[in-house]
Fold this protein.
Amino acid sequence: MKVLIPIKRVPDTDQKIQVKPDGSGIVTDGLPFVINPFDAIAVEEALRIREKSTDTVEVLAASIGPEVCEQQLRTALAMGADNATLIQCDASLDPWNVACVLRAFAGRYQPDLILMGKQGVDDDLSQTGQMLAALLDWPQATFASKIEFLGSGLRVTRETDAGLEIVRVTLPAVVTADLRLNEPRYASMTSIMKARKKTIERITTTELGVTIEPRLQLLGLEAVPSRRKSVRVGSLDELLVKLRAEEKLL
Amino acid sequence: MRALIICEHDGKGIRLGSRSAVAFANAVAEETRGSIECVLLGHSLAAVTQDASTYAPVLVADHPALENPVADRYAKVIADVVRQRGYDLVVAAATTFAKDILPRAAGLLGGAMASEVIGHEFRDGRLCFRRPLFAGAVVATVALNAKPQIVTIRPSAYPAASARPERCGVTSFAVDEAALPKKTEFEVLQSKLSNRPDVTEARIVVSGGRGIKNSEDFERLVGGLADRLHAATGSSRALVDAGITPNAFQVGQTGKVVAPDLYIALGISGAVQHLAGMKNSKTVVAINSDPEAPIFEVADYGLVGDVYELVPQWIARLNGK
Ligand SMILES: Cc1cc2nc3c(=O)[nH]c(=O)nc-3n(C[C@H](O)[C@H](O)[C@H](O)COP(=O)(O)OP(=O)(O)OC[C@H]3O[C@@H](n4cnc5c(N)ncnc54)[C@H](O)[C@@H]3O)c2cc1C
Ligand SMILES: Nc1ncnc2c1ncn2[C@@H]1O[C@H](COP(=O)(O)O)[C@@H](O)[C@H]1O
């Protein structure tokens, strides 16, 4: 079985994001980047599937973007992915573009399962997996917190606003990982060293026959200032007076 | 513009968030001299249809094969409706229902989609959307380059539409069962029934964080205060991960986004991912034992202290003691 993990490079979530003065983007100088946390969860799940399976399971990590995405692919290799492919593209990408590229790539690689993040923590769009599933005409199970293998498909527990929902999907399928699917492992020093020596395959979006035409166009960014009173109250009674008298609440 | 609203429902009526989607569509339709319609998908939709028709003209796709919201089927029906009837704009409230189904419909319809829209404007006649990035630290203005334009809106950004004086028309949409995808089978929904309001719909939300040690304490402190205030209960991710609260309680970047009149954070540190889900609340109160906790920076009223002492006192005051 072959599992494909699409990986997005995103700014470290602990960092303060600054907008460029002209609003055209964010300041990336000195900003550390990481593997999208949900994609790390997807990698971890694929590794667990491989560890538990009696069949051979191949885990391939793929990232679409500029050369620097190699760092996040190395992280996936260090965690234990078998192989990695960098799909080179310097244009800025929206979910539609990523889904089109992944569809073309899946056409070549023929994975049985595409396991990806439920959202990128940079733009919080949460679209790519669902668009990809539509383009491939595969079933989807989004926001997965548990994946079980049945004879010919998967039984997936999904986190929804209404509670936990269980669906069965046939393979091939697209599954997107939620936070509680697992706790990703840290790579050991030896596996980091080994991952450094691995060859990362390269292919361009042009070679895959995909032209990048943005559907979601960015016009500008603004930082959001906080506008809070930030009053420290000394006691519960003082708090209740403020809420009643000043805010007309309670 | 001709707008289609995908209405989410509970089998009885449409969800409050969908009424916000109607309000957004109404605004765009007014600004462009367009029109709106809404579509209902499901089975046995008589009551929901009644309710929906008080807000907009309704299309009903009622079929046993649509009993449960399975993404591949629902997206297919939505795409069919849009192709046959020709809409410029497709909109729904940003809930897990819509986040699952709309991007898939967008994949079938050309891929122009903006998620979690919090505002819109026209620039040189072009519809532009505002949406948060980076856990709400930044707001982007975006435009969509294909038709139909598909958006999910944050209900907190658009006050729910009110009922029209007269009922609107109802049209049924024929579902071709043979053409529906059959690769997904719905097994079960394990919903935790709660007698408290939904966090996204309540006027007051009381939320607990790691400062609350276990389920009993959560129920007694967070639940106890919430009940006195007729509020909903929420929590940080920490408590969901610890199994103390169900996942539907999680407020934040990767959980639910709320903007009630009053948000009370009890023993929550204020990580950016949590703030992303509550910082647009009108008034924020925080109780935390650590005077340096970042939650105080986004709180209107901060009280340094132990929730185990202060919350029982607060409940006692509300009980009239
Ligand atoms: C990809 C990603 C997505 C995430 N998404 C979310 C999300 O959607 N929502 C979310 O909430 N988090 C999310 N997080 C997690 C987030 O980063 C924080 O870890 C989490 O919000 C912390 O929860 P907490 O404030 O309850 O716990 P802590 O950070 O441990 O804070 C507990 C607080 O309680 C106080 N306290 C302890 N005892 C008491 C007492 N007796 N009385 C009063 N105060 C007390 C402490 O001073 C402390 O400030 C996400 C993280 C990642 C990486
Ligand atoms: N440039 C990219 N390369 C590879 N995978 C991506 C890329 N962008 C998005 N993805 C995948 O799509 C998921 C959801 O992203 P999004 O729809 O942007 O929120 C991510 O978690 C990744 O698995």
Observations:
- Chain B has two domains: 2-179, 204-318.
- Chain B touches chain A through 87 residues (CB under 8 Å).
- The first strand of chain B starts at residue 2 and ends at 6.
